[in-house]
Specification:
Largest sheet: 7 strands, antiparallel
CATH class of the largest domain: Alpha Beta
Number of strands: 26
Structural class: alpha/beta
Oligomer: single chain
Radius of gyration: 27 Å
CATH topology of the largest domain: Rossmann fold
Shape: globular
CATH superfamily of the largest domain: HUPs
Number of domains: 4
Strand content: 15-25%
C-alpha cells in the first residue's frame, strides 16, 4: 500500500511534494522516498526527509512515494517509477516475462523497463490481474524527459492530476488540494497520460477497454460453469498467502458467493457485518441475514453494532476522507469504514467484497428500463463510471485503515466474460442477476438466491440513522446536514453560464467537487462585440438549463463597456434573492479583464467567486472538454479556420489541428470577428496568455463554442435548423434557427 505524488516544471517542486506527502497522513511505519533531477533521498519519516543532505531544493522536477515497502530503484537505472500496486497473479507474471523481483511495485517497474514503448505496457488489459496507479519518469536528460501516468483499466487505484503552474499528480485529491490545486482531475482509467516536460504539454492515449459484443452463444449451463471457474480463480488470486483475511458480509447474494467459495478453497477468513441498532428501528436486514447464513454455512462472523448517536462521530471522519458530500456515497462509505476499522482491530490487512455485480449482471432498476438488446451496453456504461462513483470512495476508506480492499468480480477476465453473457441470463420478469442466483441455488443457497437486492446503506440501517440525525438537528434535507461535515462544500453556488465550453466544464468540476449548484445565470448581450459576455447562440441557454435540470436567471444588456457590469450585478442580486446563492462559478481561463470585474461585482454583493479553470493549461483544458463533452463551434474568426469547423462535433483530432495552428506566426494586420480587435487580444485584456498565432482555447475570439451534451446534461441538445453566415473565408458564424431537447438514448 503506497501513496504517490509528483510535481514538474515548478521551482517549488520539492516543497510542494513534501506538502502533499504531509497532507496524506500516512501510517507511522511508512517510509518516504523522493527523487529530483539531481538525485534521490530516502528517510523513515517526513521530518528526516526534509533534512536529508542529498536533497536539493532547487530542483524543478520531483516524484515521491510513501509506503511501508517503498520501491528503491537501483542507481544504474536512469528512469524512475512510483507506484501504488497490487498484482494478484504475481507469480504468473514473473514466470511469463521473466522477472526476478519480488514485490508488486518491483515487478511493475520491471514490466515497464522491459517495454520498448511504455504505452504498450499499460494498453493491454490482459497483461496482468491487479490494481495499480503509477507514474514513470523517463529522464532523457537532467532537466527534460517525459512523465507517464497510468492506472489499472477498471480504476481500482486512483490518481489525480493538475496542469497549472507546471504539472502535478497525486494518489488523492487532498494531496493536490494541499499543493494549491483544489480542482484536480481524476485520471480516466481508459486514458494513458503523457507529459512532455520541456514543452509543458499533456497528451492522452486512449486505451482499449472491454466490449459487450459478440454475445456468448454457448448453452446456459456451460456459461454458468465457465463464469464460476473464473470467479473461483479470481478469488483464489486475491486471497493473501498464509494470512487471515476478511470478507465484507451482508448475507446477500454477492458476499455469500464470495464467502462460500473462500470456504470451499479452505481459506482462513472472518466475515464482517455492520449494523445500526436502535429500539425504534427494526433489526437491520443485513444483520438478520448475515447471522442466519453464517450459521448455516459455519462461517466465522464478527458484527459491529452502533447506535444512531454514534453515526455522527463517523461522519466527521468519513465525509472529508472521501472528499464528497453526496448522500449516497456517504451512506455507503460509513458501513465500509466501520467494517474496515473492525478488521484492522483484528490485525486483518486484506478484505474481499462484492462490488461490481450490479453493473456486470444488471442489478439496478435502470437495467430493467432499457430494451433487452441494450442491457449489456448499459452494463458497460455503468462500469465506465465506477471509478468516480464507487472506487475512489472505497479506496480512500479502506486505505485510511491500512486495508487492501479487493473486488473478485472486477477481475479483468470476469469482467470481459460477464459483459458478453446474454441479457436473458441476467434479467427475468421478477429477478435480476439471474445467472448468479442460479449458481447460488446450485450450491443449495436458496434463501440467498431469493433475497431481493438490498444496498448496504439500507440493509445496515445507516440511511435511516443519518435521516434521523438530520431531523434532530433541524435540517429539512439530509444533504444540508451532511454538508456541515465539510464546511468548504456547504456554500450554495450559481454558475455564470454562457452556453459555451468553459462555463459548462467549470460547472461540472464544481458539481463533481461536491458543491451545491442552485442555478445558472446568463447575461444576453445585444452587442455582439461585448467585452464581457459570450454572445453566439446564447439564446440556447434556456434549453441547456432544462437539459441540465437547473433553474435559470437571465438578464439582457445593451453590452456597453463597463455599464454592462450593472446588468451582471442585477442578475447576481436576483439569484441571491430567489435561490439563496452565496457564491458564483466562472469559466475564466486567463482573461483577467473578465475575472477581475466579476470578482469586484461579486464582492460588493457579498458573493465568493470560484474559478476552477483559472490558469489551467489551455490545450489540456480543451482536450479534457472534448473528451467529456459534445461541443460544436458556432463562430470562427482566425486564419486557418473556415466554415467546415462550424456545426459539427469537435474531436481530439481537431484539437491536434488547433495545436498546429497555434504554432503558426500571426498574420500582420489580420483581424478576427471581434470587430477590429487584434487576433490574439480579447476585450482589451493585455494579460491574456497566447500560444503562437492562435489561442488554442479561443480566448482571442478565434472561435465560439456551444455545448450540446455532457455529464451534467440529462437531455441532449439537437440543432434542427441552422445556417452559416460568412464574412470571409476565415470569419463566419452559425445561426441556429431551431433546436430541441431529446432524451438520452441507451
Amino acid at each position: 500500500m503506497c501513496r504517490i505524488a509528483g510535481v514538474f516544471n515548478n521551482e517549488k517542486s520539492v516543497e510542494l511534494v513534501i506538502t502533499a506527502l504531509d497532507a496524506l497522513k500516512v501510517r507511522e511505519d511508512a517510509g518516504f522516498w523522493l527523487c529530483t533531477e539531481y538525485g534521490e533521498s530516502y528517510a523513515p519519516d517526513l521530518q528526516e526527509l526534509k533534512q536529508s543532505p542529498t536533497l536539493r531544493l532547487g530542483g524543478k522536477n520531483c516524484i515521491a512515494c510513501c509506503s511501508c515497502n517503498p520501491l528503491l530503484l537501483r542507481e544504474r537505472v536512469k528512469n524512475r517509477l512510483v507506484a501504488d500496486a497490487e498484482i494478484y497473479n504475481l507469480d504468473e507474471v514473473k514466470e511469463k516475462y521473466p522477472i526476478a523481483e519480488e514485490t508488486s511495485p518491483e515487478v511493475l517497474s520491471k514490466l515497464v523497463e522491459k517495454e520498448v514503448s511504455f504505452g504498450k505496457a499499460f494498453l493491454s488489459k490482459k497483461r496482468f490481474d491487479g490494481a495499480y496507479a503509477c507514474a514513470y519518469w523517463v529522464r532523457d536528460d537532467a532537466h527534460g524527459g517525459e512523465v507517464y501516468i497510468a492506472r489499472d483499466i477498471i480504476g481500482l487505484k486512483p490518481v489525480c492530476f493538475a496542469h497549472t503552474d507546471g504539472f502535478a499528480f497525486a494518489s488523492e485529491r487532498r494531496a493536490l488540494d494541499a499543493m494549491g490545486h483544489p480542482y484536480a482531475i481524476e485520471l480516466d482509467p481508459r486514458i494513458l497520460l503523457r507529459y512532455n516536460i520541456a514543452e509543458d504539454r499533456v497528451s492522452f492515449v486512449k486505451r482499449e477497454f472491454f466490449y459487450e459484443v459478440p454475445e456468448l452463444t454457448k448453452e446456459k449451463e456451460k456459461i454458468k460453469a465457465e463464469l464460476l471457474n473464473l470467479l473461483r480463480a479470481s478469488i483464489s488470486r486475491r486471497i493473501p498467502l498464509e494470512e487471515k483475511f476478511g470478507v465484507l458480509f451482508s448475507g446477500g447474494l454477492d458476499s455469500t458467493l464470495i464467502a462460500y467459495l473462500c470456504k470451499d478453497l479452505g481459506a482462513d477468513f472472518v466475515c464482517y457485518t455492520v449494523a445500526v441498532e436502535d429500539p425504534e428501528m427494526k433489526e437491520a436486514e443485513d444483520l438478520e441475514y448475515a447471522k442466519c447464513i453464517a450459521s448455516e454455512l459455519g462461517l466465522r462472523l464478527k458484527v459491529k453494532k452502533i447506535r444512531v448517536e454514534d453515526i455522527e462521530r463517523y461522519l466527521k471522519e468519513v465525509v472529508p476522507l472521501i472528499d464528497d458530500t453526496n448522500a449516497i456515497k456517504i451512506s455507503v462509505a460509513v458501513p465500509l469504514y466501520l467494517a474496515c476499522e473492525l478488521a484492522k482491530e483484528d490485525g486483518i490487512k486484506t478484505v474481499l467484497y462484492g462490488l461490481g455485480t450490479e453493473e456486470l449482471f444488471a442489478g439496478y432498476e435502470r437495467h430493467k428500463r432499457v430494451r433487452m438488446e441494450n442491457v449489456n451496453r448499459e452494463c458497460l456504461a455503468g462500469l465506465l463510471g465506477m471509478h468516480e462513483q464507487d472506487l475512489y470512495r472505497d479506496d480512500m476508506v479502506a486505505k485510511s485503515q491500512g486495508i487492501s480492499l479487493r473486488a473478485p468480480f472486477l477481475a479483468p477476465e470476469v469482467v470481459a466474460y460477464a459483459l458478453k453473457i446474454p441479457a436473458a441470463y441476467k434479467l427475468s420478469d421478477d429477478e435480476n442477476k439471474v445467472i448468479l442466483r442460479e449458481i447460488a441455488r446450485n450450491f443449495g443457497l436458496e434463501k440467498v438466491a431469493r433475497r431481493k437486492k438490498r444496498a448496504v446503506q439500507y440493509g445496515s440501517n445507516v440511511v435511516k440513522a443519518i435521516e434521523r440525525l438530520a431531523k434532530r438537528k433541524g435540517y429539512r434535507y439530509t444533504r444540508d446536514y451532511l454538508r456541515t461535515f465539510y464546511p468548504s462544500r456547504a456554500i450554495k453556488l450559481g454558475c455564470l453560464f454562457s452556453s459555451g465550453k468553459d462555463s459548462a466544464y467549470a460547472l461540472w468540476l464544481m458539481q463533481k467537487a461536491g458543491y451545491p449548484v442552485e442555478c445558472l445565470i446568463s447575461i444576453k448581450s445585444r452587442n455582439p462585440e461585448s467585452y464581457m459576455f459570450h454572445t453566439p447562440a446564447v439564446e440556447l441557454v434556456e434549453l441547456q438549463a432544462e437539459a441540465i435540470g437547473l433553474p435559470l436567471v437571465t438578464k439582457e444588456t445593451e453590452g456597453e463597456k463597463e455599464k454592462e457590469l450593472e446588468d451582471l450585478r442585477a442578475a447576481l442580486k436576483e439569484a441571491k434573492m430567489r435561490y439563496g446563492i452565496e457564491g458564483v462559478i466562472t469559466g475564466a481561463l486567463w482573461s483577467a479583464y473578465q475575472k477581475e470585474r466579476i470578482e469586484r461585482i461579486a464582492m460588493e454583493e457579498g458573493l465568493t467567486v470560484f474559478s476552477p479553470l483559472w490558469h489551467i493549461n489551455q490545450e489540456t483544458e480543451l482536450r479534457l472538454i472534448v473528451s467529456n463533452f459534445e461541443v460544436i463551434f458556432t463562430g470562427i474568426g482566425a486564419y486557418g479556420l473556415d466554415r467546415s469547423w462550424l456545426g459539427r462535433k469537435i474531436t481530439l483530432e481537431d484539437v491536434d489541428r488547433l495545436v498546429e495552428l497555434s504554432k503558426s506566426k500571426p498574420l500582420q494586420g489580420f483581424r478576427g470577428q471581434r470587430g477590429g480587435a487584434p487576433l490574439i487580444v480579447k476585450r482589451a485584456d493585455r494579460s491574456l496568455r497566447t500560444f503562437g498565432g492562435l489561442n488554442i482555447a479561443g480566448e482571442g475570439g478565434e472561435f465560439e463554442s456551444l455545448v450540446v451534451d455532457g455529464p451534467p446534461f440529462k437531455k441532449r441538445l439537437v440543432i434542427v435548423e441552422s445556417e452559416i453566415l460568412e464574412e470571409d473565408e476565415n470569419t463566419a458564424r452559425l445561426v441556429v434557427k431551431e433546436a430541441k431537447l431529446v432524451e438520452e438514448q441507451v
